[in-house]
Design brief:
mainly alpha
Length: about 190
């Protein structure tokens, strides 16, 4: 009886091993499929995030660059605050106590900053353009707070809003438009 039992046990073990190998293959195949789906999902999510960041970056950059370009031209031409209507920029500067020649200086730098924001490459130049735009906007806010008390809606809010838009553009810029690491980390 012992040989019959061992033959049955052998057959059972062989069947279990074959079944186990089959199950292992099936589980392995299903795991690979799930990994592939997960990778596709992650890549799709990353692509979607990248696309939304890219849209946000270009929308804010377009607004910031357009403001710098239009403001630069307006300053150089001594035009009006709202391009075709509004108070002449020379009157605004006189009201705030600045000399008129400041318009020429600001106009040139605003034009160069707007061009730098839109030009491909030159990440260091872009950093300076963002910094310059923020200096212009924060200077306008400070001037409005100190001397423009009679109309805060004109002298304070517009430059503050454009400063926030410019800051958003700087934060959302893609890696190709940065200098590299924003904050260096300790080497381990």
């Amino acid at each position: 009886m012992a040989p019959i039992l061992s033959t049955n046990v052998r057959a059972l073990i062989t069947r279990v091993v074959k079944q186990n190998r089959y199950e292992t293959r099936v589980v392995s195949c299903l795991a690979r499929r799930q990994e592939t789906r997960d990778r596709r999902q992650e890549t799709g999510d990353r692509r979607q995030e990248d696309a939304s960041e890219s849209v946000g970056y270009w929308a804010t950059t377009a607004v910031a660059a357009l403001d710098l370009l239009a403001g630069g031209l307006t300053d150089l031409m001594h035009g009006r605050t709202a391009i075709v209507m509004g108070e002449p920029v020379t009157e605004v500067l006189k009201h705030l106590g600045y000399p008129v020649y400041v318009l020429t200086i600001l106009g040139v730098w605003k034009l160069l900053g707007g061009i730098a924001l839109l030009a491909p490459g030159f990440p260091r130049l872009k950093e300076w353009a963002y910094a310059g735009a923020c200096f212009v906007y924060m200077g306008a806010v400070a001037s409005g707070l100190v001397l423009g008390r009679d109309d805060p809606g004109t002298f304070i809010w517009p430059p503050l809003i454009f400063a926030v838009i410019t800051l958003a553009s700087w934060v959302l810029r893609p890696q190709s438009r940065t200098l590299g690491m924003s904050y260096p980390t300790a080497q381990q």
